[in-house]
Amino acid sequence: MKVGVITFPGTLDDVDAQRAVRYADAEAVALWHGDTDLRGVDAVIVPGGFSYGDYLRCGAIARFAPVMQPVVDAARKGMPVLGICNGFQILCEAGLLPGALTRNSSLHFVCRDQWLRVENTETPWTTRYEEGAEIMVPLKSGEGGYRAQKSTVDELEGEGRVVFRYAGGNPNGSVNDIAGVCSANGRVVGLMPHPEHAIDALTGPTDHGLAMFKSLVESVVAA
Amino acid sequence: MTQLDTVAHAAETPDTEQPFRELGLKDDEYARIREILGRRPTDAELAMYSVMWSEHCSYKSSKVHWKHWSANTTPEMKAKMLAGIGENAGVVDIGDGWAATFKLESHNHPSYVEPYQGAATGVGGIVRDIMAMGARPLAVMDPLRFGAADHPDTRRVLPGVVAGVGGYGNCLGLPNIGGEVVFDPSYQGNPLVNALCVGAMRAEDLHLAHASGTGNKVILFGARTGLDGIGGVSVLASDTFSGDEGGSGRKKLPSVQVGDPFTEKVLIECCLELFAEKIVVGIQDLGGAGLSCATSELASAGDGGMRVELDKVPLRAKGMTPAEVLSSESQERMCAVVRPSDVDAFMAVCRKWDVIATEIGEVTEGDRLVITWHGETVVDVPPRTVAHEGPMYERPIARPADQDALIADTPDGLTRPRGEEELAATLMRMVASPNLASRRWVTQQYDRYVRGGTVLAQPSDTGMIRIDEETGRGVALATDCNARFVKLDPYQGTQLALAEAYRNVAVSGATPLAVTNCLNFGSPEDPGVMWQFEQAVRGLAEGCKELGIPVTGGNVSFYNQTGTTAILPTPVVGVLGVIDDVRDRVPTGLGAGQTLLLLGETHDEFGGSEWANVVHGHLGGTPPKVDLAREKLLAEVLAEGARSGLLAAAHDLSDGGLAQALVEACLLGDVGASVTLADDQDAFVQLFSESAGRVLVAVPRPEEMRFTELCAARGLPWRKTGTVDDESDALEIAGVGAFALADLRAAWEGTLPALFD
């Protein structure tokens, strides 16, 4: 089972995402922004960081990188794709997920241990959680405020596509406390907090994030 | 445009007036340059010498005191060092074939002028120093000092500095694992922005900044060179090219450099790939003094000369003069020496990372640094005279006349709180005071998680990073300085800073190994400041000898003053420790089922204390006594306790004393505790004295006997202070009061947001 982890210039959390994949007993495959194919991987993670320095707008340049075309094509055919933080922003810019991420309401970068409620356990990235489970993972972003048109938010809420919601206080002004959403087919998930930083209580606040990567492995093996 | 000031032209025009004084050179320094060259310097040479002979680059006022470092470094201490003072950063052997490199540096003055960019480029600069040793940068820390917390200008400077540190470090992808935030009115017009970076490498991969091997190529890579950060050298442009200021807009650019962390992140990965391919002979970062520094230092440290074609440097501004290209402090640039056969491979790696790389020269036979501009020679100098043989001054030293009066003004007469109510009110007031309150408002703007190696970070006493994922080997770092203690007694105060940083590393379970420093002082031309400086250097050097840990490098920042009023002398000391397995780390927060013990002895010591500061606005008397033998013993007991699993938590006692340590340990663990003070000592002294050599430890109840036996066997005084009570939501101190955790948290965490939100 191979999981691709993309590195753009300015990607920072690629080593963390690769480690999380290994902790879930899968093989992490490094994908380069200039790659034009996905090297036979079964799923893709678009990790956090500041791709292209966040110039222009977070994720706006990365979506045009050569590697994104095969990612978009594969996602449309049902390949599981996870976007974390800057990766979530990139997936929104690429049109794989609805909405946009805006400056935190505090106007400051915020790094904190954040409680989340898991609201959708049907995606390939969340099957190991119980619905309504509360997990703590790091949140670290300056532009994490989730925004979308009212009709889009209504659609996401109506179809159960809000995957994670902030619990214990909204850290960035996201509409409806939304921390993460999924595509209509549920295969593409994006969230601002960092499950890959919560795979071992030694280096993270908890190991609550590891279940996301284990969920993926189970889902792909079962499919 | 007027004629290019070539070497030939300079020889022909010996009487041309040159603006050397505006560039900061003294008459005799200028005369010495003329003597070295046998003619007047060209504009470009004058630019190089003036910036390289500045206090910042040449250490001309402090160098004479460096004898204290060497005089106090024993062969055993030296044996741990793979590179020491004089290299870009110190390197120490941390075992298993790993080497760690770390350094502290100041970026004080730019950060007052332009807080965001000043702080941001401070981070960028120290990270490149670490890269220049061949290491992967792993984490940063930022010791910061500001004016009074409630001063209006602090509201301008602090948020900008914090955003700059975060903005650069977060985007660069390095976790920020600690540091300091201290307020004192003496920093009002002169905040201190110090930055530390730590990196690691396999010991055999150490790179030094040497240009050797005739015929090897000199390659400049990274960002383009522009007009930012040219500073004083702009006088050359206006003098030489009067009337030629239009078009390029050179006058409108700030003298503070502008950072681009994205470029630096890419540069890090590019450098590491170059190191991995083993195609770098020598490497140097471009920081202060830009290419002037990089070319002269590389050539000076190598075994030959160097020829540089300056017009090949990629520029981002039009009409730059050779002097400006040499002096520009544009960020995110590195300079490498590469064998001709490896140039293609070098360029291929740079292309992969979209990093601009340009061959600008080569190592030559002989001992001259020759720089040409479109074929004409504009610099022809012996590089050692630029980089390593600058002026050196033995500045006058005099103990300040008011030092005795300061010491005589002891805190003994200050009114102390009496009785339960007053003690309780004092505790609550102290917890919320700006220097003791939670730093969360600051640290939550820093990414502490990136790269997944952070084991401990703020608000822990120390930052700890895992280096080897297989074995768990890691390093711990702390920086400290109580400048109020240093003001009262610079020798002992600096040893107290060393002791505190050493102790902070020890409480995490790591073994202290090496020291770096950033010595922030007023004007070296003030004999009183030089006295403080000399005392501080001697105190630190002799203290390190007693502890057996070497000073591996450091930085001096002088002229930190407003008018004639200097800052509190602030020798920030950074200590690096090693831990065999980070899983044995000891956290700061308490947990259920633990017994609290106080290690060390408490005396009636309030000179320079935070209590005297907060309650009485008083600074006088003598600082607490320092006992380095005791600190060493304490560290050994803590390391043994951590290795044997006897320690559940530990917290250093420093500013604010036992009261503050108890409050923080409870809040960080989110548990209550019941504490009993000794009945043979005044409660106020026990709670608020800042005696050194003390640590609050929490031991799992079943291990209490084993741990106290360990202390007894080693002769370390200890006293049972209380127990953790996880059923309770209060810190109860018998005879003082019960403090609800919620009230303590509100007081502790409310201060900085109220000031800066």
**In percent, how helical is the residue content of chain B?**
25-40%
Oligomer: heterodimer
CATH topology-level fold name of the domain at 403-477 and 573-756 in chain B? Phosphoribosyl-aminoimidazole Synthetase, Chain A, domain 2
**CATH fourth-tier homologous superfamily of the domain at 403-477 and 573-756 in chain B:** PurM-like C-terminal domain
Contiguous uncertain segments of 5+ residues of chain A: none
- The overall pLDDT average of chain B reads 93
Class of secondary structure makeup of chain B: alpha+beta
The figure for the number of domains of chain A is 1
Determine the mean pLDDT of chain A: 97
DSSP summary: helix tally of chain A: 5
Spatial sequence of strands, sheet with the most strands of chain B: 8-10-7-11-9-12-13
What are the key terms here?
heterodimer, A: about 220 residues, alpha/beta, Rossmann fold, nine-stranded mixed β-sheet, two-stranded antiparallel ribbon, globular, B: about 750 residues, alpha+beta, Phosphoribosyl-aminoimidazole Synthetase, Chain A, domain 2, seven-stranded mixed β-sheet, 27 helices, 28 strands
Q: Your description of this structure?
A:
Chain B: It is an enzyme of class 6 (ligase). Chain B: Mg(2+) 2 binds at residues 129, 285. Chain B: This is Phosphoribosylformylglycinamidine synthase subunit PurL. Chain B: It catalyses: N(2)-formyl-N(1)-(5-phospho-beta-D-ribosyl)glycinamide + L-glutamine + ATP + H2O = 2-formamido-N(1)-(5-O-phospho-beta-D-ribosyl)acetamidine + L-glutamate + ADP + phosphate + H(+). The complex is a heterodimer of chains A (223) and B (757). Chain A has helices spanning 14-23, 68-76, 86-93, 150-158, 210-222; strands spanning 2-7, 27-32, 43-46, 81-84, 100-102, 110-118, 134-141, 145-147, 162-167, 178-182, 188-191. The mean pLDDT of chain A is 97. Chain A is globular, with a radius of gyration of 15 Å. Chain A is of the alpha/beta class and 223 residues long. Chain A starts with a strand and ends with a helix. Chain A is built from 5 helices and 11 strands; from the N terminus they run βαββαβαββββαβββα. Chain B is α+β, with helices and mostly antiparallel strands and 757 residues long. Chain B has a domain at 403-477 and 573-756: Phosphoribosyl-aminoimidazole Synthetase, Chain A, domain 2. Helix content of chain B is 37%, strand content 22%. Chain B has a 7-stranded mixed sheet. A 7-stranded mixed sheet of chain B has the order 23-25-22-26-24-27-28, sandwiched between helices. Chain B has a 6-stranded mixed sheet with strand order 1-2-3-6-4-5. In chain B, a hairpin with a 2-residue loop joins strand 19 and strand 20 (565-566). Chain B is globular and about 85 Å long. In chain B, 61% of the residues are buried. The model of chain B is unreliable at 238-249 (pLDDT under 50). The A-B interface holds A 9-10, 12-13, 15-16, 19, 49-50, 52-55, 108-112, 138, 140, 142, 194, 196-197, 202-204 and B 163, 166-167, 170-171, 173, 260-263, 265-266, 353-354, 443-455, 466, 469, 582-583.
